[in-house]
Design brief:
The complex is a heterodimer of chains A (322) and B (271). By secondary structure, chain A is an all-alpha fold. Chain A folds into 2 domains: 31 residues, no CATH class; 232 residues, MetI-like (MetI-like fold), CATH 1.10.3720.10. Chain A is built from 15 helices and 2 strands. Chain A is flat. Chain A starts with a helix and ends in a 7-residue tail after the last helix. Chain B is mainly alpha-helical and 271 residues long. Chain B contains 11 helices and no strands. The chains are: A mainly alpha (322), B mainly alpha (271).
Chain lengths: 322, 271
């Protein structure tokens, strides 16, 4: 419509004169040299991300090769691998192992809970229901992270709604039995690994649902029908048709659930035991301990893990499902 | 019997999907109940009584207002920066295929693909190395960096649907590059940008992990909440703030959804 307005005069010449001036010159220049325009468009974002982000990452990496003077507490800006040596202490390896295990479990649980929601939304939900499902995932995804953590603090507290509910169902013995288990148990759910796990799954679940749904949307419905026409049971159809096609989506989602769990330090701090996760170790090293080199070395661990993870995910075509 | 056009889901799938959605929503609804509880010291359920007095108490707390004002200012400026950078990047990546295009997409996604704590401590150590003191602008610097990707994603999706022939048609009809941008490109991507901006705002308003590393002594709303969660002073006030935060982030999301909801019927969607 706007184009028509620009050129509404039927007697307008076929070739218009150049519009002249600086603006016209610039416009012509960009048309003749699209590469220049491209460069100008890319320059600000690349400079910003390159300097602020990549620059900071290198600053971080540089810090990890410094060391802290144990007596004065000052940072010694000389290249050394001592900090990485400190990182390999048994206590720190424990922290890394604990975090990676938690991240893997959270990813697995999110994938299992996410699949039915994503599959229903992709294959069965239509029209208004589809919108409802979409919002039903988007709203929790975008609701405040801290509020979500806080909500679970309320739910899992000893005097909270979950205990009340289990009491009404006469299932308190089950809760007590679970809490008396080693490692996953504790005084109450809000100070146990189980609580940390539930909060992680809850907070990152939407990040898993969306890519899985995107991947499942691309599976034609008649493929599933063909599979069952050919005599496959629903389980076989799932294993041999749906799951392989949904896998790139699951991997794409797992990038988020895994990476976010690796780096989180707030959930285990608010809902969890006193045993540290990588994020908490980083936070306390740079904060109270003032040992930025060790904190930096700690963050290199998730970077390396995520590097491998992203590399593997790319090979599986997960980025197309994002 | 399966190919009758409108297949119905197996019962098990329906139940699993419904339970999943309930799992996602009930905890947030619980926040709304707790904002009215009369209980001050614990998280006891069911609430012993309901009251609205905590809204008045919260209203009169200057620290809440300061945090809110800082959060809104940071989110507004970060969103503005992210809008410019994200749109430029999306336009460049979707218009042309050039060497390193994949790298650019990766560069944009990296700040949210890597754990927030890495972004946070990376920025902190960069500030330390460069002797930059913490200020309003150090918070903005961090927020804008990870907000770019939200705008970028929305803009790229819309550019993909906007057919390039419309730009060529505009040029053929005699519009110069700027006119084409103003009258053809901008109207096409405006709602996507607005949606991206809304989401970026919500993202920045809610961010806590990076902010703890770049804020120094200042408190945004999430940092204020984090303090309250670790060292509770007045739990009912926290409950009320939590409810307000849910509402404040909900509105931009709903609006962004409304803006991009019928994106598939955008003009020029030749695919």
């Amino acid at each position: 419509m706007t184009i028509a307005a620009l050129n509404s005069n039927p007697a307008a010449p076929a070739i218009l004169p150049g519009s002249g001036g600086l603006r016209g010159a610039l416009s012509d220049l960009f048309w003749r040299r699209p590469k220049l325009l491209l460069l100008l468009m890319l320059l600000p974002p690349v400079l910003w991300l390159g300097i602020v982000y990549i620059g900071s990452l290198f600053a971080l990496l540089a810090q990890s090769f410094f060391s802290i003077d144990e007596f004065s507490g000052l940072i010694n800006r000389e290249f050394t691998l001592k900090t990485y040596g400190d990182l390999l202490q048994a206590a720190n390896l424990d922290i890394i192992l604990r975090t990676v295990t938690m991240a893997a479990l959270v990813t697995l649980a999110s994938a299992i809970i996410a699949f039915p929601i994503a599959y229903y939304a992709a294959r069965y939900a239509r029209g208004r229901w589809k919108a409802l499902f979409y919002l039903g995932v988007m709203l929790p995804l975008w609701s405040s992270y801290l509020v979500k953590v806080y909500a679970w603090k309320l739910i899992l507290a000893k005097e909270g709604i979950l205990t009340w509910l289990l009491g009404k169902l006469n299932l308190l013995w089950l809760l007590d039995a679970w809490l008396s288990l080693p490692i996953v148990g504790g005084n109450s759910l809000s100070v146990s690994f189980t609580g940390t796990f539930i909060a992680f799954v809850y907070v990152w679940l939407p990040f898993m649902i969306l890519p899985v749904q995107a991947a499942l949307e691309r599976v034609p419905g008649n493929l599933v029908e063909a599979s069952s026409d050919l005599g496959a049971s629903p389980g076989q159809t799932f294993r041999n048709v749906l799951f392989p096609l949904a896998l790139p989506g699951i991997v794409a989602g797992s990038i988020f659930t895994f990476s976010l769990t690796l780096g989180d330090y707030i959930i285990p701090q608010i809902i969890g035991t006193s045993r540290l996760f990588i994020g908490q170790a980083v936070y306390s090293q740079q904060g109270t301990a003032g040992n930025i080199p060790l904190a930096a070395a700690f963050t290199v661990v998730p970077i390396v893990i995520m590097g491998f993870y992203l590399w593997g995910a790319k090979r599986m075509g997960a980025f197309d499902a994002l | 019997m399966r190919s009758d056009g409108s297949p119905s889901a197996p019962l098990g799938l329906k139940i699993a999907a419904a339970c999943g959605l309930l799992f996602l929503h009930l905890p947030i609804l619980l926040i709304f109940v707790y904002a009215f509880t009369t209980e001050e010291k614990s998280f006891v359920w069911p609430p012993p009584g309901l009251t609205t007095q905590w809204f008045a108490v919260t209203w009169n707390r200057p620290d809440v207002w300061e945090a809110l004002s800082l959060s809104i200012r940071v989110a507004a400026i970060s969103t503005a920066i992210a809008l410019v950078l994200g749109t430029l990047c999306a336009a460049a990546v979707s218009r042309t295929r050039f060497f390193g295009r994949e790298t650019i997409s990766l560069l944009v996604i990296l700040p949210i693909a890597l754990p927030g704590i890495i972004t946070g401590i990376a920025l902190r150590s960069a500030f330390a190395l460069a002797d930059i003191p913490f200020s309003f602008w150090t918070i903005v610097l961090g927020h804008a960096t990870f907000c770019v990707v939200v705008v970028y994603n929305n803009a790229v999706a819309r550019f993909r649907r906007t057919s390039g022939s419309m730009i060529e048609a505009s040029m053929d009809l005699g519009a110069d590059g700027f006119q084409t941008f103003r009258h053809v490109v901008l109207p096409n991507i405006a709602t996507a940008l607005l949606a991206g901006g809304m989401l970026a705002f919500a993202l920045s308003f809610d961010e806590v992990i990076v902010t703890t590393f770049t804020a120094g002594q200042q408190q945004t709303v999430p940092i204020w909440m984090l303090e309250e969660l670790i060292r509770p002073r007045q739990r009912p006030v926290t409950n009320v703030v939590a409810m307000v935060v849910v509402l404040v982030t909900l509105l931009p999301i709903l609006f962004a959804y409304y803006l991009t909801r019928d994106g598939d019927q955008i003009a020029g969607s030749g695919k």
